[in-house]
Automatic annotation (TrEMBL):
UniProt topology in membrane: Multi-pass membrane protein
Any single GO CC term annotated in Swiss-Prot or TrEMBL for this entry: membrane
Gene3D superfamilies: MFS general substrate transporter like domains (1.20.1250.20)
Name under which the protein is recorded: Major facilitator superfamily (MFS) profile domain-containing protein
Amino acid sequence: MKYGKKQKEKSKPLEISSGAEFKISDINMCGNYVVYLTVTYFFMVLSQTCNLLFMTFADRKPKVEDFCEKKYSDYMSTKICNFDIPMEYVKLGTTIQNIGLMIGAIVAGNIADILGRKKVLLSFTIGLIIFLIVTPFSPSFIVFTIFRFFDMIFTGGKHCVCNPYFMENLPDKHRMWVATVVTYSPNYIILAGIAYLCKNWKILSWVTAGIAVLPLIMIPFLMDTPRWLIKKGKDKKASKAAVCIRKWDEELTPEKEKKIIAVVENAAKEELTKKKKGKNYYFYHLFSNWKLGSYAVVFATSLFSTSFISYGIAYNMDALAGTVYINVIILGAARWSINILAAGLEFSIRSVGRRLLHLVAVGFIAVIMAIIFVIYIFTWPKINTYKAVIKAGGTGEGSILAIIIFTRYASLLAAAMCTELFVLDTVQPAELFPTPIRSTGIAFIQIFNRLGTIVSPLVFIPSKHWPPAPFLLMLITSAADFLLYFFLVPETRGMKLPDNMPGEEDNLCEDRTQSTEYTTDITNVESYDSVSTSTSRQSRKNAKTETETRTGEDEDKSRKSEEGKERWRMENRV
């Protein structure tokens, strides 16, 4: 009986307040802490956007004009960054710089799993600020490219770490719409304005460093995610982080604080026990399970395609009609509108989930690229003639002008649609990869994200020989994304972040089943003992009652007999 009571006490969840149970998921609530975290994340994303699109504006002067005769293949010597070099070398330099993004993603992802997200964000932000400050002092284009290479290492590392860090701190049901609204899209518009006002690339670099100082000041007030600390078995740090986060939104009584600490430390100790019994997980474990491996391949392909298309167009605004500043503003406005529309649909209509949004977005991009590709196959000689006529000061055919304008806005719209894929490819991997390999999995797919960014400046190079080629390449990558995702990725809306590897889930269920069966057996034994005791007591009680009844009947008969004898004596006396 005592053992059974102890088991029930242990299995009973601790309560954070009367009538309410505290769970680990209760730490992440939409409150003051999440608002502060979101603002910090916004400034981190803004500094990263300025650095990612730096080369889009580096050789631009704030002269707003609209023209349609520009063609990327007509290479011209240009004063890029005050260095007199051909434009094709600038594109190659941008590609070399973007290799730093991939290296940063690999390094930061692995360090974050060892030291924690917060330390990596702080150190990489400091590194980014330093190199953004020194880059304008470059004496040559080679030195400039080297400094920019390190700029991009720190940018790639921050991007790789801040996304899972942000996702892990958001409540499950608010994760999608918050990540959709607070994204890179509005920062495109802000960046276009900043670049226009800066007037030259040196001031733009220093302003970007100043923006990066803001998250550097704000990050120290954040905490490492309790979820990550629990998985690492760091019970004291996890409980401290959980209490600190909750104090942002409510005053904790000593009793509540003790209960939160007890729940978190107990969860961390359980994880530590499982880790001792289990094993450490590394990169190759990402492919130890067929489902996890397929998810990695799908999202790697998706991010490569998305970056290839999005940055391929962003880095090659020369290939489109219109000024760079206006095009970037259009691109940013379209991206954010798509973000908000998708977030509204996903939040208000239950049937609209991650899967539907992904397939619609990538399907739209593939269709647009197919249309432009077909148009260019039949009209590119006329387009070249039209541009030559305009350049000479003449007037071209109206139909060709319409095709050029359509190509401009259709390309910008396709690039804008990539924003939804970036959001989904950030949210869904975090919902599919278990916590032990989440950062590793995200780091892996971010490598392909950066590979797409690396080769994107070169996407319009083949247009020198065959103008439809860039659109054919973008059609192939988007079609591959659509097909792989359609067949391999499930819906994840409303799913809680998985904390265990697939095999661990089964073992955990078995352990819980055995524990339940053991508890049931103990309860059954106690119930049997209780029933037996009650039956025995009832039998004794019934026997006693029967004895008492029989005794009473005998006494009654004896009494009646005595009364009869007395009456007989009296009658005889008479």
